[in-house]
Amino acid sequence: MDLGIKGKWALVCGASKGLGLGCAQALVGEGVNVLIVARGAEVLQAAATQLIAAGARNTGVSVLFVAADITTVEGRAAVFAVRKDFDIMVTNAGGPPPGDFRNWDRDAWIKAIDANMLTPIELIKSVVDGMAARGFGRIINITSSAVKAPIDILGLSNGARSGLTGFVAGVARSKLAAQGVTINNLLPGAFETDRLKTTMKGAAEKSGQSMDAVMDARRKTIPAQRFGNPQEFGAICAFLCSTHAGYMTGQNVLADGGAYTGTF
Predict the structure, then answer these.
(1) Distance CA 24, CA 174 (A)
(2) How far apart are CA 115 and CA 96, in angstroms?
(3) Phi/psi zone of residue 180: left (φ > 0), alpha (ψ -120 to 50 degrees), beta?
(4) Bridge partners, residue 137, by sequence
(5) Are 183 and 171 spatial neighbours (Cβ–Cβ below 8 Å)?
């Protein structure tokens, strides 16, 4: 299937590894030019080199990269100094640490909200009017399955990402929808990423079990009986960015191997 986005420009955040890189790989595979951003310069450059090779081999796309903290004003300014206009944007920032809510002070909450709610909103503000003027835009926010099924040790993430979800539910249904701009959230369950390992480490410490035992127990709760991989997550993201997904907006698309047991 031709996704109809060849030649467009995408900004992909948190793209040096994991789910962000999976999204960038899928978009490059569809002929999309990408600007990837992450904090770690060395890992980001390695990811860019990989994407450049894939783009030159398959589609001849352009790949730019900026090592910056997208959750800061300075980081966002550095990104938009390289390129201002994008047709596609994938927002993504590392989730806050797991723990017990009794130990989180105001600063911990503000940091979580700033990274996982306010940063995506600021990024949306930066690109959405240009998208509307050109008549095409796709914004994908990588959030978490915890938005639908909260995880007790991820209270910071539950709260901050739920705030973003509520915001998107409103703005996605504004006049932007009639101007060809869609905004959707992509909710990962348990994927093979560093974030999963961090969460499982916290669960292991809380329960007193070994890391392997906790990982195995989590895997068995998933009907698919496995963790997801970034490449299949990226493929879902690429479809949501496609011309074929123009009638989908304001949605929370769950990718969790069937772990969520609710009907709605």
Answers:
(1) 28
(2) 8
(3) left
(4) 181
(5) yes
Q: 81-117 burial, b if ≥16 CB within 10 A, otherwise e?
A: eeeeebbbbbbbbbbbbbbeeeebeeebbebbbebbb
Q: Which two tokens stand for residue 77?
A: 């300014």
3-state DSSP: the chain helix, strand, coil percent, rounded to 5? 50, 15, 35
> Which among 154, 137, 216 is positioned nearest to 188, based on CA atoms?
154
What is the bridge-based pairing of β-strands 181-188 and 9-13? unpaired
Distance CA 194, CA 172 (A): 30
Using a cut of 0.85, tell me whether the model's pTM lies above it.
Answer: yes
Check: CB of residue 7 under 8 Å from CB of residue 33.
yes
Beta bridge partners of 142: 186
pLDDT digits (tens, 9 = 90+) for 215-260: 988 899 999 999 999 999 999 999 999 999 999 999 999 999 999 9
Q: Would you put residue 258 in left (φ > 0), alpha (ψ -120 to 50) or beta?
A: left
Token pair, residue 52, equals: 């450049």
Q: Three-class SS of residue 77?
A: helix
- Poorest-confidence range of 19-23, 161-165, 197-201, 208-212? 197-201
Model pLDDT for residues 1-20, shown as the tens digit of each residue: 899 999 999 999 999 999 99
- H/E stretch holding 52: helix 41-58
Can you state the angle between helices 194-207 and 211-220, rounded to 10 degrees?
110
